[in-house]
Amino acid sequence: MDDDAPYLAPYGRHIFICTGDYSDYCDPEQRARRLELYLTKRLGALGDYMNPQRVKVSLTPCVGVCMRGPILVVYPDGIWYHRVDEALIDRIVDEHLLGMQPVADHVFHGLAEQPER
After folding, report:
1. Of the four listed, 12, 21, 100, 102, which is most buried by Cβ atoms within 10 Å?
2. 8: in domain
3. What is the distance between the alpha carbons of residues 68 and 117, in angstroms, rounded to a whole number?
4. Number of domains in the chain
């Protein structure tokens, strides 16, 4: 291993929030950046850098859906949420991240739903 490589603390999940930079339809009110700040604060101990179950949160310019955003994706779970707002973030934290049950009524895609190839 490279002795000069950067260090990254272990983490359990990575959440991507799409900013919709390439489409006027994804997040026309540009809420993604505010939601990222809200989620980061809402995570509490799950956001602690040294917590091995930490949830990393990243903004991304596009996840390729381009409608009904903001879009939020939870990996490695492969769960995709649409029309995300603060109330849904509260449910995602409580039910999905802490309770291990995705918020089914707001999931529009899951990796497990992919057809066999």
Report:
1. 102
2. no
3. 28
4. 1
Does residue 2 lie within any of the structural domains?
no
Q: Dig out the tokens for 63 from the structure.
A: 């996840």
The answer to whether the beta carbons of residues 88 and 79 sit under 8 Å apart is: no
Task: Provide the residue range defining the domain that includes 45.
Answer: 13-108
Give 73-108 pLDDT, tens digit per residue. 999 999 999 999 999 999 999 999 999 999 999 999
The answer to whether residue 49 is domain-embedded is yes
pTM of the model: 0.87
- Adjacency order of strands within the sheet including 13-18: 55-60, 13-18, 72-75, 79-81, 107-110
The dihedral built from the CA positions of residue 50, 98, 40 and 7, taken in this order, carries a sign that is: positive
**Half-sphere exposure of residue 49, counting CA atoms within 13 Å on the CB side?**
3
H or E element in which residue 42 lies? helix 32-42
Contact by Cβ (8 Å): 103, 92: yes
